[in-house]
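Reading a protein record of the kind used here takes only a little practice. Think of the row as the fold of the chain written in a discrete alphabet. With that in mind, consider the following protein and its fold in token form:
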Amino acid sequence: MIEYVLALIRLLSGEIGVAEVVARIGPVETDSGWPIPMELRPTALELRAARLARYPDTGLPYALTIEPADGAKPTVAELQAALGDYQQTRTDRGMAPEVVFAPPASGPRWRVAVLARLEPGAGDFESCNVSRIVFRRDLAG
């Protein structure tokens, strides 16, 4: 799964449109139009679900959300080894914890932040499995 995550960061750091994301993840299952993210039907066995949100003004990909399949869920420690340090984000009481990674920009125009929602679990924080990963595309400053 880590190689898959790194490949998605490289893809989303480039000058791409919705078609390139769909070609990598899988066909569109439902698209109600902006502001509702389109539902994709993942073709990779590592994924259970995927959604793609778009920028309202350009229609370019804004955020790709993936849900790893059971058995493919990385841990925080595995993501940290690949992406570097993280910060825990604030969440409301009762919500699963989230962390954010800010890997270095790999494209000239786009930076991809990686937000990971953790499964509630016993044990130390870094051994928790990740239940959802959001790749958010921001213009590099």
